[in-house]
Amino acid sequence: MQIRLLLLQAFVAAVLAAQNQPVLGEETVKVSDHVWAIMGWPNVAIVVGSRATLVVDTGLGPRNGATIARVTARLAPGNQKLFLTTTHFHPEHAGGEAGFPGGTILIRNAVQQSEMELHGKEMIDLFAGRSAQFKELLANAVPRAPDITFERDAQLDLGGVTARLLWFGGAHIKGDELTFVEPDRTLVSGDVVQNKVVPGIFRDGGTPSSWLAARTPESASKVSSKRSTRLGRI
Ligand SMILES: [Zn+2]
Questions:
Q1: Whole-model pTM above 0.85?
Q2: How far is the CA of 92 from the centre of ligand 1 (A)?
Q3: How far apart are CA 128 and CA 92, in angstroms?
Q4: Measured between alpha carbons, how far is 14 from 197 in angstroms, rounded to an integer?
Q5: What would the pLDDT profile of 167-203 be if each residue is shown by its tens digit?
Q6: Ordered structural domains, the chain, with CATH
Q7: Rounded to the nearest whole angstrom, what is the distance from the C-alpha of residue 89 to the centroid of ligand 1?
């Protein structure tokens, strides 16, 4: 019981510390040859090819989405095509879509999209009730329909680099999406793998066994993640 309590306290402290800083900055960290990250709440991945760019996750609300779009344009000024995907439907991961420029191609797996339709607005309202700052950031966070949905696996050829978008079943929630970048062998895990919080299962998302199945061993061999980089945080 004591261990459980300590874990819970550590979890709550980590979440509260992160949520105190919901505004993303414009600094990036280079993770691998084609992948940059804005480290924050949450970590946001930017995959840059010679023709197109993929952003994974939006930050909390349109203002953060616009920040990511600015950074992306600086990293790849010649790329006309911008893809956006989300690791899951929680507002700090998907609630900033409206800040991206018109013409951004939004893509996510079908299970995640149905969760968004069922609970997206409810979660935005829940988060907006947490503080005045959250309310302001989420003021114009209106989810829109994606341009592309897929069932289990989608590949984006960005020019010299390929992003594989993968759904392996429920883990943190039902529609978690993993992004595996080749040839970098970089994995963007979203909240499936959270620093010092495992397994981070939200409400009726996955079960401990489905969470394990989403990570190993079949899924691991499918993405050949010998060297993976965890960018996801709650
Ligand atoms: Zn989450």
A1: no
A2: 8
A3: 11
A4: 9
A5: 998 888 899 999 999 999 999 988 887 766 666 777 7
A6: 4-233 (3.60.15.10)
A7: 8
Give residues with Cβ within 8 angstroms of 165, minimum separation 6. Answer: 85, 107, 108, 109, 150, 153, 154, 155, 156, 177, 178, 179
Task: Look at residues 22, 178, 167 and name the one whose alpha carbon lies nearest to residue 96.
Answer: 22
Contact call for residues 216 and 177 (beta carbons, < 8 A) = no
**Distance from the alpha carbon of residue 184 to the mean position of ligand 1, in angstroms:** 25
Extended beta strands in 15-119, E state: 29-32, 35-38, 44-48, 52-56, 81-85, 105-109
Ligand 1 centroid to Cα of residue 59, in Å, is 12
Structure-token pair, residue 218:
């079949």
C-alpha torsion angle, residues 215, 61, 72, 52 (rounded to 10): 60
The distance in angstroms from the start CA to the end CA of the chain is: 24
For ligand 1, the distance from its centroid to the CA atom of residue 176, given in whole angstroms, is 9
